[in-house]
Amino acid sequence: MSMIDLKDVAPRNESGTVNVFVETPKGSRHKYDIDDHGLVRIAIELPEGVTFPCSFGFVPNTIAPDGDALDIVLITAGEVPARSLIEARLIGVLKMENDEGGEMKRNDRVVAVATMSRVFSEIKELEQMHSGFAWDIEEFFKTYNEMIERPFEVVGRGDAAEAHRMLEEAEAAA
């Protein structure tokens, strides 16, 4: 079985959509990481009753200010498996900080909608999501960081234009 090398995956498509590599699927009680060999590793098990509200992943061949690939919260109507590559449209940003080595640092999450989604096909901006959507995701991150005993703070939200600027900066940094 041959494996796709993510170094060969473009961050962005000609249509302006992005490629999102899913690490942790929606509904999972486990946070997954992809190791240097492309294997899925369980990093954390969440408490009973706590699951990932959306799929989480990254845009390949990007480097965000935190030194990792650009993080993505991926909105789909259902679950997708870990290691899926999903074409998506950026709709906004959840601005967050968490402790990194004793210092609070930005660790924003760009929010994107899977382009194949019929349920969310009309969503172009984060504010168009159902009332409370962004708050729900922020609360999940608060719970997640509390569970791993890491200081965390929500610092704001951004629109699709800001998400695209973040993508451009992360592409340039790679």
UniProtKB/TrEMBL annotation:
InterPro entries: Pyrophosphatase, Pyrophosphatase_sf. Gene3D superfamilies: Inorganic pyrophosphatase (3.90.80.10). One of its GO terms (cellular component) is cytoplasm. GO terms for biological process: phosphate-containing compound metabolic process. It comes from the Bacteria. Its EC number is 3.6.1.1. The keyword Lyase does not apply. GO terms for molecular function: inorganic diphosphate phosphatase activity; magnesium ion binding. Coiled coil: none annotated. The keyword Plastid does not apply. Keywords: Hydrolase, Magnesium, Metal-binding. Its cofactor is Mg(2+). This is inorganic diphosphatase. It comes from Palleronia abyssalis. The gene is ppa.
